[in-house]
Design a protein that fits this description.
Number of strands: 10
CATH architecture of the largest domain: 3-Layer(aba) Sandwich
Distance between the termini: 25 Å
CATH class of the largest domain: Alpha Beta
Order of helices and strands: EHEEHEHEHEHEHEEHE
Number of domains: 2
Shape: elongated
Structural class: alpha/beta
Number of helices: 7
Radius of gyration: 19 Å
Strand content: 15-25%
């Protein structure tokens, strides 16, 4: 192992979706790791977009549009365009994001970002925006598997919240042969959930690569 290759001889399992793993894979490989892409999740547009479409068509009636993930921003923008609604056109609500990565993804989709949470947690938006949410209509596009913390916190702050499923998060099937690998890198609650199940399998069968998870 050399100073510039601290991961030489290590095999790292990355459980993010393949399209979101390329940069991480390249960085790990530059550090000497052998990288195995083992996506624990996949992302797709919801089968039923009725509620999503209704919200997009009435976007100008909302005061805030909140993005808690890059996927939410991308899928919401994609659906906007399919409906002929340009994210940067017309009268649009103020837009807030959780963290710079989400803000960057939203900006890349032509959303003007008015606020970025200082703490990179969904509930931080409710806490940091505080009184600005009172009596306001808030649109919250997100995964169908997202938790209740943020919408509950927004309502506690006095906001009228519309939750819509902008994308579906699903598994991608059984794991490939993982023997000889080291830690797994997971991102997102769905990946951790699937990774935990795979780790239980690994503990029973012997491979080391998914016995530890780094999230």
């Amino acid at each position: 192992m050399s100073a510039d290759k601290p991961l030489d001889g290590k095999c790292i399992v990355v459980t993010r979706a393949v399209e979101q793993s390329r940069d991480l894979k390249e960085r790990l490989e530059k550090l000497g790791a052998r990288v195995l892409l083992l996506p624990a999740v996949s992302f797709s547009e919801p089968a039923d977009t009725t509620d999503l479409d209704r919200a997009i068509r009435s976007l100008e009636t909302y005061d805030w549009l909140l993005f808690t993930s890059a996927n939410a921003a991308r899928f919401f923008a994609s659906r906007c365009r399919k409906l002929g609604r340009n994210p940067e056109g017309g009268d649009r609500p103020r837009c807030a994001a959780v963290g710079p990565a989400t803000a960057s993804a939203a900006a890349a989709e032509a959303f003007a970002i008015d606020y970025v949470a200082k703490e990179f947690l969904g509930v931080a938006l409710a806490r940091e925006l505080g009184a600005a949410l009172g009596g306001k209509r808030v649109l919250l596009p997100r995964s169908g598997r997202a938790g209740r913390d943020l919408p509950d916190a927004l309502r506690a702050a006095g906001a009228e919240v519309t939750e819509i499923v902008a994308y579906h998060t699903g598994g991608v099937g059984a794991a490939a042969d993982r023997a000889g690998c080291d830690p797994a890198a997971a991102a997102g609650p769905a990946a951790v959930e699937v990774g935990a199940r795979l780790a239980r399998d690994a503990a029973a069968t012997g491979p080391e690569c998914l016995r530890r998870a780094v999230s």
